Amino acid sequence: MMNHHLAVDAPARHAGTKLKKLALAWTLALTALGSGHAGAQGAEIRPDWPGAGQLFVGTNYQPVDRSREQVVQDIALMKQSGFKIVRMGDLSWDYFEPSEGKFEFATFDWIMDQMHAAGIKVILDIPGQPAPLWLHHRYPGANLVSQQGTRLDPAERYMDNNSDPDYRRLVKRLADTLTKRYAKHPALQVIGYNNEIGNGYLSYSEADRKRFIVWLQKKYGTIAALNKAWATQRWSRKINVWDEVRLPYAEGPGPFERQLDLRRYWSDVNIANLKDLDAIRRKNTPDKPAISNLWDSAGRKGFDYLSTYREYANYGAMGFYPGAPVSSGYEALMMKAGMSTPIWFNEFTAGGPGYYGTKGRSRMWAHFGLLLGSQAVLAWTYNSHLGGEEQALFGLLDHDDRPSWKLGEFATIAADFAKLEKLGFPRMTQPKVAFAYSFDNMQATNPVGPQATNTVRQYLATPYLVQAHNAFEPLFKDNIDAAVINIAHEDLSRYKLLVVPGMYLIDKAGTEAIRKFVADGGTVIMTAVSAKVDGHNQWHATPLPGGLTDVFGLRTNEFYNGGTLVTKIGGEEVKGSNGHYEVLEPSTAETLARFSNVDGAPPSITVNNYGKGRAIYVATPAQPEIMRPLYRQLYASLGISPGPKTPDGVYARAVEGRVLYVNTTGEPKDVAIDGAMTGVLSGKQYSGTLRLEPLGVDLLAK
């Protein structure tokens, strides 16, 4: 993974040489990515694209809604607005295959030709979901069955059973047919898979139960191993033969061990579908990268993206509908994972909450994405929806086809990006800080059913994602790059600091990864509620944190609520916002800080030297008030430099001697700057202070 920041203040005659060097840098980055990247194996990614010095603004386009006359008008407006790319095909299986085995391409061929003539590239999304009604009618195994045993009609777009063999066979045929047909089309730039895969439903058919049993047999081998993993000795739940296994209730009630395995099974189903499609892409279009609009964190189903993305993704990509900057930034970095390639926002907010919008909001978020290392924003959506599940959703064109102000705003974004792609964008980040996240932990910390309220949820006190965002916030506000990764599936030697916030479940591989990272010289920070259960979602029968007591040099004891906790970090008195704390019992660890308003003044933060590194334990759930001063105590020793200093709500990154500032608030903000500077985007001159208007952005240069 390489970071190439080349000066851009050289004379214009050197611009061509610079771009060649950047292209080479990108090629090296892609080569490094491909070396352990099953999804990229066999790919012949061209050094000129997608790469350094190229940004993309475009839109999602549903030609199924449009006449040929409208398509011609639409493409003319796209070109006029500076759009470089469109995403098409998603959600439209029966547009291409209106009946089984009967494909129709004439209109789409014509549209592809029109896009090429306008100089607009295409993301071709394999529309594997929703499946057509003809498929559900002819192959009832594709229908869902509720956990109460009711057969469900495909009443909404994600009601497909993608574990069904007929569904999988037919979606592969669709992918093969589409990619073969358009493999050599000059407009084709990218392949995507199954829009928002992860946002589906679990199914409880008898066929699903049998497939689940096969999955369990492969995972555990014997009934005895399954009984141990599921703690069946309790509550008279012992399984004697495989056919006694039933599908656990995802909606509860049910033992948590079984619910975790159910979620893992369905995760593997989604991943298997993605791997099927990527094998077809590598066969038919090896020079086109996989950039799919995935939804691994979807609450209904989801999947374990961070453990497996190398098998079907070349770029992290997602639908970006941001709310708060911290949570939105965290989620985008989770999609980037450990990749050296930039993030793609295959669906991008075309307005505000509910998509209707505030002027300037989309432009602000587009530049916010550039701070994170994004390369593309594609508005959702181009034409407003007259009917269907998103009826009344306003796009870049109003319902009567009149261009709205949103189209003008995306034209402004395109003009901004045309300037910035010559000035070091997209950013090639090389973070020194990583945050641990895992699909398994997310499932373990969100059990369902009445017993969850009485036990696990009551104990956890702070939801996992709240801990994760709280740990991320101070570092993000210090304008420091970070990665969000599954620690058991990445090379941790790239990082100086590893933050493990409230990781209730850490399996054996994760435990060993932390141990090795610290032994090799890394610094880890772990917060309360971490390492309580093993990979089977059962509490450790050893001192806690499970498997890591020697690394952290302590034992954690019971959890209490001390009200407003007060501690002192680096001479600074800190009042926490979360009163829960664990009683820490150090052995080899040293106490860095204590609670001053709790009986006995127990440790609030400890540090233990282990191998060449150090392990820090925070007795409370992660909260910004405590994490911020702790991080700042560590920056210098770790060689981590905070980014440009900004007021709250303003984020910034230095890029090749310039600084991009983004005001995410609805208020004007004054930012202190060093001397006189020029706004590349605004053309304004500043001296000592940058005035950013609400939702304002600018790139400052000396």
TrEMBL record:
<dbReference type="GO" id="GO:0005975">
    <property type="term" value="P:carbohydrate metabolic process"/>
</dbReference>
<dbReference type="InterPro" id="IPR017853">
    <property type="entry name" value="GH"/>
</dbReference>
<dbReference type="GO" id="GO:0009341">
    <property type="term" value="C:beta-galactosidase complex"/>
</dbReference>
<dbReference type="Pfam" id="PF08532">
    <property type="entry name" value="Glyco_hydro_42M"/>
</dbReference>
<protein>
    <recommendedName>
        <fullName>beta-galactosidase</fullName>
        <ecNumber>3.2.1.23</ecNumber>
    </recommendedName>
</protein>
<dbReference type="InterPro" id="IPR003476">
    <property type="entry name" value="Glyco_hydro_42"/>
</dbReference>
<feature type="domain" description="Glycoside hydrolase family 42 N-terminal">
    <location>
        <begin position="61"/>
        <end position="413"/>
    </location>
</feature>
<comment type="similarity">
    <text>Belongs to the glycosyl hydrolase 42 family.</text>
</comment>
<dbReference type="GO" id="GO:0046872">
    <property type="term" value="F:metal ion binding"/>
</dbReference>
<dbReference type="Pfam" id="PF02449">
    <property type="entry name" value="Glyco_hydro_42"/>
</dbReference>
<dbReference type="InterPro" id="IPR013738">
    <property type="entry name" value="Beta_galactosidase_Trimer"/>
</dbReference>
<keyword id="KW-0378">Hydrolase</keyword>
<keyword id="KW-0326">Glycosidase</keyword>
<dbReference type="InterPro" id="IPR029062">
    <property type="entry name" value="Class_I_gatase-like"/>
</dbReference>
<dbReference type="InterPro" id="IPR013529">
    <property type="entry name" value="Glyco_hydro_42_N"/>
</dbReference>
<dbReference type="GO" id="GO:0004565">
    <property type="term" value="F:beta-galactosidase activity"/>
</dbReference>
<keyword id="KW-0479">Metal-binding</keyword>
<keyword id="KW-0862">Zinc</keyword>
<feature type="domain" description="Beta-galactosidase trimerisation">
    <location>
        <begin position="432"/>
        <end position="640"/>
    </location>
</feature>
